[in-house]
Amino acid sequence: MNIKLTTLLKPSYFASIAIVIITFTACSAPLNTANNHYAYITNQGENTVSVIDTAKNQVVNTIKVGKAPVGVAVSRKLQRAYISNVESRDISIIDTHTNKLINTLKIKGSPVGLALSPNNKTLYVADWFDNRVIAINTLQTNIMHEVSVGNAPAGLIVSPDNHWLYVANRDSNDIAIIDTETLTIKRRISVGKHPFGLALSNSGKLLASVNVQEDTVSIINTQTDTQQKIKVGYHPYCAAFSLDENTLYVTNTQDDSVTVIDIATQKIIATINVGSTPEGISLNHSNHRAYIANWGSNNVSVIDTKTNQLLTTIKTGEKSRAFGQFVLSR
Amino acid sequence: MKKILAAIALGLSVSLVSFTAAAHGPSPLKVDKSITIKADPAKVWALIKDFGNMQKWNPAIVSSKLEKKGADTFRTLTLKEGGTSHDKLRSTDDADMKIKYETVTSDLPLTDYNAFIVVTKGEKPGETNVQWVSRFYRLYKLNPPIPAGQDDETALKAINGIIDTGLAGLQKTAESAK
Asked: I need a labelling partner for A27 at 20 to 30 A (CA). Which of A13, B30, B117, B120 fits?
């Protein structure tokens, strides 16, 4: 939808919006075209991002970014996708309205994990080179702050109230909890061996740490810091919670599968075969779909989270990774 | 010094605590090669699934020794280019004609190696497609400067050599065998 400001101010436009609203209310149409969802998939091997329209399950754009893109963070409010490029050591900024690259931010180090604060004010960047996290003001990207963390920071995620930044320190085997006001480490939680991906439940009460070399997931109660470990597949990488927080989905890179965990009983309720070497996973809650980027087979697997069945596979680019929250509603 | 310069460049730095023990920087590498062979899939699969006998079709391998440890199966390959590779069999799937294995220790200039080989029916009768996909990292896991012989190119060259030689050898063996 490409609408000029003058168009927005025309009374006829408001009238058409009103009609659209009435129509959708009357028919309860499942897909509102004004609120489509898009998946931004980083392709490490060809320095691009594939944009998938999740209503059609088709790639609608391929955008050239920096060298060896890995991490991704998206913001509906800012209409931006941020991409971390490990080898060119920069962040590509994409305008998600036009799906065009609009800026590149140089980073001192090797950016991997990315996360946005829910208030969209700050982009956090994990730097493996100097073991720190860089905080970038999204409205004035020249303003950067940093905090030293544990060894090889990987996955990042921010609490719904914007107060806490969780950092998976892969080589320290712990999670650093950072106060976002002061950018200081409040405490650390030991998890399993080599934590990489992090996931936070919608309320912020549950934090999942995917422990690659232990083949486990730690599910941490963020109010009590207590944790339970669950065995998953071989070399798991990333995870995502369902909207109701009852289910956790985990990618197993060397089993080519996704493990589905029932949180209440801590039991594995399904194991779904996907593409080769699955890495990043994000859920589109509006249509009950999980999107999984497959590094080995250069595609994205789509799972129906109601039935836990593989629905389709979408060809993307060489070495798809999509490390982070990559589904954007627009 | 680098830290201080970085702090100045970045404006306000909250902490100057330095962790010079470097992190893991490289991206995973992939070699993904396929070949079409004029032989029946069953015949090609029989050669590939024989985990302890890669030397029968891959000229890059001089000899192979199979070992069982409990339920696990291992092999030690002696490489033509020198050195050995000690591999663990992950799975053999007859229905999908797919074998998965990983390297435990090796003299190859790389690390964290795992691979699969999958056999599928070709377009025409009597033809077979073979795909061999490997994932690994260069030997030097820290950030640049990277010592000579431990970089991405060296790791890729070693695996490309074994796989190119192997697939050509597989074709020759499968097409000439009765």
From this structure: A13
